[in-house]
Amino acid sequence: MSHYDVYGIGNALVDKEFEVEDSFFAEAGIEKGFMTLIEEDRQQQLLDLLSSRYPLKKQAGGGSAANTLYALSQFGGKAFYSCKVAGDEPGDFYMAELGNHNIETNLLPQREAGTTGRCVVMVTPDAERTMLTHLGISQYVSEQEVKADAVKLAKYIYIEGYLVTSDSARAAARKLKQIARDNNVKTAMTFSDPAMVEYFRDGVNEVLGDGVDLLFCNEQEARIWSGEEDFEAACNKLKTIAGQFAVTRGARGARLFDGSVYVDIAAHPVKAVDTNGAGDMFSGAFMYAITQGMSFRQAGELASLASATVVSEFGPRLTPGAHASVLQKFNTL
């Protein structure tokens, strides 16, 4: 009998979020709409520049897989999260954010010396997020962080695409997939960001291996990975590496493939103010739904509603009460 709905692995990061104008990117030499890895000193320089011009909008525990598991746990699911956090003040903050939300982890009270990863999130008036990330100690996520006993108790494992930038993290993802396969645990993966499939394609394909049971991505990532500009052709290519998948399409909703047929999910019209965490929320709500026995359509409809809710405010996560409100609204649709 499964004890966890999802066992996830990912980069543990503290998010610092700012509202900026598009002109800031040109001035600072930043590529809009992507996640870019940078060194700590460069990140600090940009943080200093941002702080001199814009107020800090929000600080929160982050990381793609962590955001997904947070959502799943707040809807009522059970999660285990493997990651790496340093024994510094940001690490203490991250632990409090995670520990207060009922997610079990591999982390111990006495953590390694080092620097906890940080992600600078810049949101423009069009609600698009651009991220500059220093992974810190998280770049050393390895097979050591994989807890086989917990994996065996899960319904799904969940791998974030950001891990493909690290040799040790890719090895950890491969080990996690093998343990899952040996114990009849399903594998889910997210591409996480267009930059991962564009600039780290070999790493993505290494982790994909001979395929996954469930894949999450957005339309841009699907086109880049498949090499197909036509959306239908891109979806057909995804079938070669995923038994099932969910492709988010922004204002056009989402395209699901349940293993047999496509299921198209409508979007919920909202005024988006911050798209940071939208895909993570979609995955978390979706995996909560399917692990609780809902259909693919029901899962897609809950995920669409949840992601529309999270983009309506700043930050990648909703409050516990907001998750309850989303479920209540979903049950009345």
Please explain how this structure is put together.
- The structure is a single chain.
- The strands form two sheets. Strands 6-5-1-9-10-11-12-13-14 form a nine-stranded mixed sheet, sandwiched between helices. It has a five-stranded mixed sheet with strand order 3-8-7-2-4.
- It is 41% helix and 23% strand.
- A hairpin with a 4-residue loop joins strand 13 (254-257) and strand 14.
- With 333 residues, it is of the alpha/beta class.
- It has helices at residues 22-28, 40-53, 64-75, 89-99, 148-151, 167-182, 194-199, 201-208, 219-226, 231-238, 278-291, 296-310, 320-332; strands spanning 4-9, 13-19, 35-37, 58-62, 79-82, 103-105, 116-123, 129-136, 154-160, 186-190, 212-218, 242-248, 254-257, 262-265.
- Helix 3 crosses helix 11 (278-291), helix 9 (219-226) crosses helix 10 (231-238) and helix 12 crosses helix 13.
- It has a single domain (4-332), classed as Ribokinase (UDP-N-acetylmuramoyl-L-alanine:D-glutamate ligase, 3-Layer(aba) Sandwich), CATH 3.40.1190.20.
- It contains 13 helices and 14 strands.
- The model has no long low-confidence stretch (mean pLDDT 94).
Helix residue percentage: 40-55%
CATH-wise, what's the superfamily?
A: Ribokinase
Q: Examine the coordinates and then state which fold CATH places here, giving the name of the CATH topology.
A: UDP-N-acetylmuramoyl-L-alanine:D-glutamate ligase
Structural class: alpha/beta
Largest sheet: 9 strands, mixed
- Strand order across the biggest sheet? 6-5-1-9-10-11-12-13-14
